[in-house]
Write a structure and sequence with these properties.
Layout (H helix, E strand, L loop, with lengths): L3 H10 L2 E4 L22 H15 L4 E5 L8 H10 L3 E6 L18 H21 L3 E4 L4 E2 L7 H18 L5 E5 L9 E2 L4 H11 L3 E6 L9 H10 L3 E6 L16 H13 L8 E4 L8 H20 L3 H9 L3 H12 L4 H10 L6 H8 L1 H8 L11
Parallel strand pairs: 1-2, 1-10, 2-3, 3-4, 4-6, 6-8, 8-9, 9-10
Antiparallel strand pairs: 5-7
Helix pairs in contact: 2-9, 2-13, 4-5, 7-8, 8-9, 9-13, 10-11
The structure holds beta-L-rhamnopyranose (RM4) and manganese (II) ion.
Manganese (II) ion binds next to loops.
Length: 386
């Protein structure tokens, strides 16, 4: 059986990064429903992220999105973040919201547009320098809608060239996370559609280029834990963007749609002893119809619960059953852990750490939500375009 002290220590060391954009307004392509009290500035988003950390004790960093979180002085922003009790996490680049990128960013057939896109990525590295951020997260909407629209192979060459320039600009402690997505907004062919493409580019680049798995970016039925196991074995799993999906890139709360999948993913991490090996466990979600801060707190708890269950797997018993070819026995070991109610254990850890055992309830009782609704009047609420 797993050693309870080790399980507790591992849960205490688990850190989940929350995204600045989860606190802003968001919606579908049909409608954005604005919510009262939503941040108007990067500072207000960071203040909200700090609340999630305050009540969970497990969300010490916040990812930024450039240009949505652009400020004049990033050193100052890093200081503000620190004063709020959190730190700046990954810098997410954005080369998908400019008219110039209609036919692609770094893979665009026009060299002028490619240069502009690379310039933005290099600017993001400057921001990492100023904020102390370790990770540059790259997601490209690049692709084509029609067969013959552009040359598939040339686009790979352009991608490789752009990645090389950015990779070579990274400082010794900085990393590149290359995210993939099956489709959308391009429909016929996406330039980084899957983990294999991302992995191959990372290998070509060097050891500080690793794959980011966004759990919402796969075809239905994809075995994500297999990808996790493969990339861990290859030393190329850099990060997760956790969220839930029913159909496509739904960006719902992590662990909401398929908590069993999240458990299976976390089990592969535990299996590889990689919970504290530098993998960034990030959320990439949007809360379109629910209150945002408690939804982020709920998501953090869901990741904690999946991790706790993964830590409870009796790995010796599992291994023995596997080696004996005991199909049902092996499956039962895994399911026993998954079916354990870990909420009392997590509540106990929180109490021992001076936190409220019920983070969502504690947040609601804190009055923060009402306070920001009263205070944040006027100005322009943050959303996908700002
Ligand atoms: C993309 C991708 C990126 C995220 C943006 C907001 O679909 O998942 O990780 O930065 O959305
Ligand atoms: Mn993502």
């Amino acid at each position: 059986m797993p050693n309870p002290a080790n399980v507790r220590a591992a849960l205490r060391s688990l850190e989940i990064e929350t995204p600045s954009w989860a606190y802003g307004n968001s919606g579908t392509r049909f409608k954005v429903f604005a919510q009262a009290g939503v941040p108007r500035t990067p500072q207000e988003k960071i203040a909200d992220a700090a609340q999630v950390h305050r009540f969970t004790g497990s969300a010490p960093s916040v990812a930024l999105h450039i240009p949505w979180d652009r400020v004049d002085d990033f050193t100052e922003l890093a200081k503000y973040t620190h004063d709020q009790g959190v730190r700046i996490g990954a810098i997410n680049s954005n080369v998908f919201q400019d008219d110039d990128y209609k036919l692609g960013s770094v893979t665009n057939p026009d060299p002028r547009v490619r240069r502009k896109a690379v310039r933005h990525l290099l600017d993001c590295v400057d921001i990492m320098d100023a904020t102390g951020s370790r990770d540059l997260k790259l997601w490209f909407s690049d692709g084509i809608n029609y067969p013959g629209q552009d040359d598939l192979r040339d686009r790979q060459d352009r991608l490789a060239e752009a990645l090389r320039e950015v990779y070579d600009r990274l400082g010794p402690h900085q990393r590149m996370l290359l995210e993939y997505k099956l489709f959308e907004p391009a429909f016929y062919a996406t330039d980084v559609p899957d983990w294999g493409t991302s992995y191959a580019h990372c290998v070509e680049l060097g050891p500080r280029a690793t794959v980011c798995i966004d759990t919402g970016h796969h075809a239905p039925g994809t075995n994500i834990e297999f990808i996790v196991a493969f990339l861990l074995r290859a030393g190329r799993l850099g990060a997760f963007d956790f969220n839930s999906r029913f159909y496509a890139d739904d960006d719902l709360m992590a662990g909401a749609a398929d908590p069993f999948q999240l458990f299976r993913i976390m089990y592969e991490i535990v299996r590889a002893d990689s919970l504290s090996s530098g993998i960034a466990f990030m959320l990439d979600q949007c809360h379109n119809i629910e209150a945002k801060i408690p939804a982020v707190i709920r998501s953090v708890l869901n990741v904690q619960e999946a991790t706790a269950k993964a830590l409870l797997v009796d790995r010796d018993a599992l291994r023995a059953a596997q080696l004996e070819g005991d199909v049902l026995g092996a499956n039962a070991v895994l399911m026993d852990a998954y079916n354990t109610d870990v909420r009392p254990l997590l509540a106990e850890l929180r109490t021992e750490d001076g936190l409220d055992p019920d983070p969502v309830g504690a947040y609601r009782r804190s009055g923060y939500g009402e306070r920001v609704v009263a205070e944040r009047v006027g100005g322009q609420q943050a959303g996908w375009n700002a």
